[in-house]
Amino acid sequence: MATLAFALSDAVPAPIADDLVRRAQAGDEAAFEALYRAHVGRVFALCLRLSGDRTRAAELAQDVFVRCWERLKSFRGESAFGSWLYRLAVNLVWMANRGDRRREARVLPVEDPQPLERPVESSPVALSIDLERAIGSLPDGAREVFVLYDIEGYQHQEIARMTGIAVGTSKAQLFRARRLLRERLER
Amino acid sequence: MNERERDVELPPELRQAVNDLPRSIEPAEDLWPGIKARIRAGTGDAGRGTSPHPSRWWIPLAAAAALVLAVGVRYWLRQADAWEVRPTAGVPRVDDAPLASRGTLRVGEWVETDDSSQAVIAVGTIGHVDVRPGSRVRLVRARDTDHRLALAYGVIHAKVDAPPRIFFVETPAGTAVDLGCEYTLETDRNGRGLIHVTGGYVEFAWSGMRSVVPLGAYALTRPGQGPGTPYVEDAPAGLREALVAFDFEQGGADAARRALAAARAEDALSLWHLLTRVEAGMRGEVYDRLAALVPPPPGVTRASAVVGDTTALERYWSLIRRIEFRRVILRGIRDIDPSTGLAR
User: Fold this and answer.
1) Is the separation of the CB atoms in B157 and B176 below 8 Å?
2) Of A153, A184, B134, B344, which sits most exposed with the smallest number of CB within 10 A?
3) pTM (2 decimals)?
4) B270 or B11: whose pLDDT is higher?
5) Interchain contact A162–B (C-beta under 8 A)
6) Is some CB atom of chain A closer than 8 A to the CB atom of B343?
7) Distance from CA of A75 to the nearest CA of B (A)
8) If you measure CA to CA, which chain B residue comes closest to A67?
């Protein structure tokens, strides 16, 4: 998968990012706001694609940063701050989706992806509409694994560790997602 | 990877389209005020209401907030003045100083590469620009809402993951406006250039004139004349020559008619641009050819297109760009009818 020469986590020069994290860990809100500004786009995109709903994504992104603030002291710098934050986001959104789904299951047929389809007109990149629509129309589990594997670049083992599903399930969902995506785009 | 997975490996075009999806999407509204309120509540600020001096409890908070604001503003102002730059080959120069390792490019400073050097500029937090050999690029503005470079000459390759219209590249022939995209832009020392879009869209604007160049298309640019009519990668030579004559050599109606004759359904992008570029008396002729190649969507009529009805033209454009998108990303997978965008 393509990556930016400067990954978003590196977009703030490393020494400045490290300093911001240290200051935020010490309770400096201004430093935490700077971290928020640097990472909110990536976190929101992740929440949007995993949840399939723009309003819900904004709530989840807010939850991610609140959780990040609460757990910041446990960040030991063993990975880039961005990587740690995105894993935290995946975890939180995954768990929230499971909870939402249990509630929705009472009123929505689970195999019908339409009610969860994201409104395409809100996409900020017009060209991506066809593909975003196709991804948004994938069944939940398939969409989640596709987003994490094919868009975010995680491996099956990492997805399994973060979400608690089996590696085989992750592979099966990816297989299903890619097949459905091809079919829907080739229609 | 087992056989089943290989069977559904994404085709290269679709893989590229997935890779081109924006990794960063800004929420519609700033989430920070809500986050700030929640983390303050969680860190016990709310409990300060039990102070024995309730009328003055807010004073230290206000002072702290003012300090935080001052530090934050100072930090962001400092950040806003510069982007990171680093060499990727040889030794580029930043304002005549050799750039041996990661450095800073401040507003007003130039990055210059010779035949054997290259550099990459981080465009704030939204993407990057590769500065290819033999190029000269200046940082014009570095604000959250206006990321702006100037390409004096040479070649750059830009990839940006951001909402439209916050990244710009000025050239002697006009300004490339990012609409969420990836593209290569080149300009020679006389200001004559070419843009090739490999993801999303770019608008190239000059003096009120604009060309919208989508994924898989090119547009020539000329100083004093602005952007030429865009054309797709596989456009016939006859069409490209006619467009050059029309755009830059005062070829007029003759050149436009040669373009109409050479155009295929795949070239609807070019004909749509010609609709608003030819003399008013010739618009009907262009519309007729375009409609014969790509039937207009409901609501678009000859009369509305000829008078330049913006809604009708945008509707037509929407159809054309969707067909072109499918044609490009499904190349090699499905045979897409360029008149409809449907699989044949």
Assistant:
1) no
2) B344
3) 0.53
4) B270
5) no
6) yes
7) 17
8) B39
